[in-house]
Specification:
The structure holds two protein chains of two kinds.
Chain A (H helix, E strand, L loop, with lengths): L1 H29 L3 H6 L5 H11 L5 H14 L1 E5 L2 E5 L6 E2 L4 E2 H36 L4 H15 L2 H15 L15 H35 L2 H8 L4 H29 L3 H7 L4 H11 L2 H29 L1 H4 L5
Antiparallel strand pairs in A: 1-2, 3-4
Helix pairs in contact in A: 1-13, 5-6, 5-8, 5-10, 6-8, 7-8, 7-11, 8-10, 9-10, 10-13, 11-12, 12-13
Chain B lengths: L1 H8 L3 E10 L6 E11 L4 E5 L6 H9 L6 E9 L2 E2 L5 H7 L4 E4 L3 H4 L6 H12 L5 H14 L5 H4 L9 H13 L5 E5 L7 H18 L2 E6 L2 H7 L2 E6 L2 E7 H6 L4 H9 L12 H4 L2 H7 L1
Parallel strand pairs in B: 3-8, 3-9, 6-7, 7-8
Antiparallel strand pairs in B: 1-2, 1-4, 4-5, 9-10
Classes of the chains: A mainly alpha, B alpha/beta.
């Protein structure tokens, strides 16, 4: 177990390093000159040169790259308009467009993104698994066909269309939900909840459809297994046959995908956050791409990679805990 | 009182006019037709036939576990109770507790996610009310000891993939005998195993039978297997019993042409050369294509 965790950790560090390297290289090669952006309208060639020197943009690629990597571990200092800005480790850079540390921008927005991702995840996991199991139980019957149609529709409809449609119906036309206001959970939990309910649903719908299909297929497959027949031949109650011998094996693979999906979403739900105007990491990503704010784009990319890699590792470790064949495979 | 007497003199299992049919797009297909046989108390019956001859469907219809779309008609009387048409709830009380089943492939027949001890014990926990997990566990260990699994107290906590094929089949047998059933149905119990392991499992089945006095139905395509374990034999072909009788009698003086050919297909030590006669016993449709 410890050896598995150790080798995973090493692999994770290598992948993260490579992601950092490639992302940095892409922005180094493709980027418009940051110095020009910072300099603004009343700019002279001398000022641009000065900024380049201050930022170390005259240095070769590897020097700049190691400066960035070093900043992640030990922090660094930026010279901005003659003053020095301290950026503590893990330093993700400085956004000259917003005059903020990138790390601070992300830390402010991460709770919103996490709220959206986790809330939606709970919805789609429950909805998808329940609908999938029901479809499998009623295979070929009306309910199965109903869910098949529903999942097809859910997968086909784009997020932003659904978001706008739901907003129009529930907020504008029916008035069942209030207009979103920026509130903290601790100040007004009800308003907070109502703010998030539509984003949760919109984000969850597509995933729920995939999970429904997956669960249905897994359960139907598992019911064909010989060990389910054995369980019936033992005279077990149907509930026990289902719970122990059909659902447990059928749902275990779902854990893998669920971990990966949630991890992926923590990097920001770009479309949903933008459509609902929620100031999370996804909206930050969209905004910084529009404004070509490179340090932010770079940091958001790294953050997403980090979550995906960590999510992967958590799933791997979780799997060794829930599947005895993985856990004790070597001793067979 | 007379009922009790009748009960004890009557066979343990009496199958009459059993017909199993499946609905298909081409209409109903009868995979077992008008089958009759008895299993006396403590007796052992072999059902022999090629794959597709309906022997497995016969056993599943006794257990009330026919796959979707299958129906059984006729009569299956077990210890005085008619099983066909019995309410599912009552049938559940029979399954595992009074009639236990051993399947062909022990790896896929055991759930990979649970310890073998849990899987042996769950039948006991289901059928006996008010027993503790600890009691069920000791029942499981005892059952594993009876099928000669060494170090059962430790092995009870292992998972199926940690056992060899023969050991897994022992687990399946332990599972079947843990409830002290009156009848054990073994459906091709040795087919998935090595030849040397097959012999061990057959010895074990005979031993268990003698120890517990349980009746046994052994379903197989292998005549050699039947001759070792059972007293009586039914030969099935395309859903119909073509021959029945005592094992010695059927082996020495087969009445049906089909049985003779089956016997010829078994390689014998006194054969000159193992002549392949398998084409003779193919089912008619396949034989046509061979020509």
């Amino acid at each position: 177990m410890i050896r598995i965790a150790g080798s995973r950790l090493l692999g994770m560090i290598i992948v993260l390093f490579l992601v950092t390297l490639f992302t940095y290289a892409i922005f180094f090669l493709l980027s418009a000159d940051p110095a020009v952006q910072i300099c603004g309208k009343n700019c002279t060639p001398e000022r641009i040169e000065q900024i380049r020197l201050n930022l170390g943009l005259d240095q070769p690629f590897w020097t700049q790259f190691w400066g960035y990597v070093g900043g992640l571990f030990t922090g660094r200092t930026f010279m901005v308009a003659g003053a020095s800005v301290e950026c503590a480790a893990p330093c993700l850079g400085y956004s000259f467009q917003t005059s903020q540390l990138v790390g601070d921008m992300i830390v402010q927005r991460l709770p919103i993104t996490a709220t959206i991702a986790i809330g939606a995840a709970v919805l789609w996991l429950l909805g998808g698994v329940v609908a999938g199991v029901l479809s499998a139980v009623k295979e070929g019957k009306f309910l199965d066909r109903f869910f098949a149609g529903l999942t097809l529709g859910s997968m086909s409809i784009p997020n932003y269309v659904l978001a706008l449609a739901l907003q129009f119906i529930f907020v504008v036309a029916l008035g069942w939900l209030p207009f979103p206001q920026a509130v903290k959970f601790s100040d007004d939990p009800v308003q907070w909840f109502l703010n998030f309910i539509l984003p949760w649903i919109v984000l969850a719908v597509g995933y729920a459809a995939v999970y429904t299909r997956l669960t249905r297929a897994n359960v139907i497959d598992t019911l064909q297994e010989n060990y389910v027949r054995t369980a019936r031949a033992k005279g077990l109650q149907p509930g026990l046959v289902w719970r122990r011998h059909a659902l447990r094996p059928a749902l275990t693979p779902i854990v893998t995908i669920f971990g990966m999906d949630v991890a992926g979403l923590l990097g920001g739900a770009v479309i949903t956050e933008t459509v609902f105007g929620l100031n999370g990491v996804g909206k930050l990503t969209a905004d910084s791409i529009t404004a070509n704010d490179q340090p932010v784009i770079m940091a958001v990319t790294l953050l997403s990679a980090f979550f995906v890699i960590v999510g992967n590792m958590v799933v791997d470790l979780l799997y060794t805990a829930i599947d005895p064949r993985v856990r004790t495979g070597a001793s067979a | 009182m007379t009922d009790d007497v009748n009960k004890n003199s009557s066979p343990l299992l009496s199958v009459r006019d059993l017909t199993v049919s499946f609905r298909t797009a081409q209409g109903p297909v009868r995979v077992v037709r008008n089958l009759d046989f008895d299993v006396p108390r403590g007796g052992a019956l072999g059902i022999v036939g090629e794959s597709g001859s309906g022997k497995s469907m016969t056993s599943l219809s006794i257990m009330g576990l026919l796959p979707k779309g299958g129906t059984a008609t006729g009569s299956v009387r077990f210890d005085g109770t008619e099983l066909l048409g019995l309410a599912e709830r009552e049938m559940r009380g029979v399954r595992g507790d009074r009639i236990a089943m051993i399947f062909q492939d022990p790896l896929s027949s055991l759930n990979p996610y649970y310890k073998v001890g849990t899987q042996i014990a769950e039948a006991y926990l289901s059928h006996r009310s008010g027993v503790s997990r600890k009691q069920a566990r000791s029942v499981a260990i005892e059952a594993m000891e009876r099928v000669h699994i060494r170090d059962a107290a430790r092995r009870v906590d292992h998972y199926p993939h940690q056992f060899s094929g023969g050991m897994r089949q022992r687990i399946m047998i332990a599972m079947a005998l843990s409830m002290e059933p009156d009848l054990i149905i073994a459906d091709e119990p040795t087919t998935a195993l090595d030849v040397t392991v097959q012999a061990q499992i057959l010895d074990l089945l005979s031993e268990i039978r003698q120890e517990t006095g349980a009746g046994l139905i052994l379903i197989t395509h292998d005549l050699a297997v039947v001759s070792e374990v059972t007293d009586e034999i039914v030969v099935m072909r395309e859903g119909v019993a073509v021959e029945r009788g005592q094992v010695e009698q059927v082996f020495s003086d087969p009445q049906a042409d089909y049985t003779r050919r089956l016997l010829d297909a078994v390689p014998r030590i006194d054969d000159e050369i193992g002549l392949m006669r398998t084409t003779d016993i193919l089912i008619p449709s396949e034989r046509r294509s061979v020509r």
